[in-house]
Design goal:
This protein is mostly helical. It has two domains: about 200 residues, Rhomboid-like (Rhomboid-like fold), CATH 1.20.1540.10; about 55 residues, no CATH class. About 55% of the residues lie in helices and about 5% in strands. It has eleven helices and six strands. The strands form three sheets. It has a two-stranded antiparallel sheet. A two-stranded antiparallel sheet has the order 3-4. The chain has a two-stranded antiparallel sheet with strand order 5-6. Helix 6 packs across helix 7 and helix 7 packs parallel to helix 9. The longest helix has 22 residues. The two termini are about 20 Å apart. About 30% of the residues are buried.
Length: about 290
């Protein structure tokens, strides 16, 4: 019966606003504040000065700019924020259910900070400033390409021409463009003709690849005790510890199987598909096979 399932009962907690929606709202709020300060208060550039990333700001102790620069965009170029928001939305809606809320948010923040750090290292002597969420979006795209390297993706080139490519080729092309732009323009102290912060993109992409290569299959322990992410094997101590007891559930009868599937669905709803153990994924596969045979 439907009443047997916790997520169908009236007392089941309603789904909260996703972290992706909050993240997009924060980016939009930052852009609106830029417009308000520039056009109403007649103080253009004040938010960019205190929260945008610059070498002089870091020398002055504004280290928070390594994160806050991603919430600001060029108020004179609407495509700057629109492009980043579209990338953040379409990539986030795919990756968020796989990673879970905590891991997705930590990954995005890490890629933004890594992009800002690489940009600061390259432009420390040259100076300048950078704003925008493109480092985080570029990193998310690399993670997406690692998960789905050969899945065809169709997008509108220049918002007009539909083009279908595989993510792995798009990621390689993006990497080559940014590497060339960083080497031939940023390192030489010249402005990029594309208007991109190539070094920030490279930092975000590197952080995304490192996460997928070394940390994705890991499960760290949060202070709350809930297993969300864990350190990889090469970072753990070599001392042997007693193996934890495997989670076993009696799913021999249809009633037990249905109850276990309900519990797993609740876990996916709250923590994401990536939080499931191998046994839980196996149980879902068995339930799917059972339903397909009916």
């Amino acid at each position: 019966m439907l009443s047997d399932r916790s997520y169908m009962r009236g007392d089941y907690p309603r789904e909260k606003t996703s972290v992706l929606a909050w993240l997009i709202s924060a980016v939009v709020a930052g852009f609106v504040l830029q417009l308000v300060f520039a056009r109403i208060f007649e103080m253009p550039g004040v938010l960019e000065h205190y929260f945008g990333l610059s070498a002089s700001g870091l020398r002055g102790g504004r280290v928070w700019a390594l994160l806050t620069y991603s919430f600001l965009h060029d108020p004179r170029n609407l495509l700057h924020i629109v492009g980043n928001l579209l990338g953040l939305y379409f990539l986030g809606r795919v990756l968020l259910p796989m990673l879970g809320t905590t891991r997705f948010l930590a990954l995005y923040a890490g890629m933004v900070v890594a992009g800002g750090a690489v940009w600061a290292a390259v432009n420390w002597q040259v100076g300048g400033s950078v704003i925008g969420a493109s480092a985080g979006v570029a990193g998310l795209f690399v993670v997406f390409a690692c998960f789905y390297p050969s899945q065809p993706v169709t997008f509108l080139l220049f918002f007009i021409l539909p083009v279908t490519l595989k993510p792995k080729y798009m990621a390689i092309a993006l990497l080559l463009i940014d590497a060339a732009g960083c080497a031939f323009y940023e390192v030489m102290g010249l402005p990029s003709p594309f208007g991109f912060a190539h070094s920030a993109h490279l930092g975000g992409m590197a952080a995304g690849w490192i996460y997928y290569r070394y940390l994705h299959e890991a499960r760290w322990r949060l202070p709350s005790g809930r297993a969300d992410i864990e350190l990889p094997r090469w970072m753990k101590k070599t001392a042997k510890s007693p193996a934890p007891a495997a989670y076993q559930v009696n799913v021999g009868s249809p009633g037990n199987l249905r109850a276990e599937v309900d519990r797993i669905l609740d876990k996916i709803n709250s923590q994401g598909f990536g939080a499931l153990s191998a046994d839980e994924k196996r149980i879902l596969d068995e339930a799917k096979d059972l339903l397909s045979r009916r």
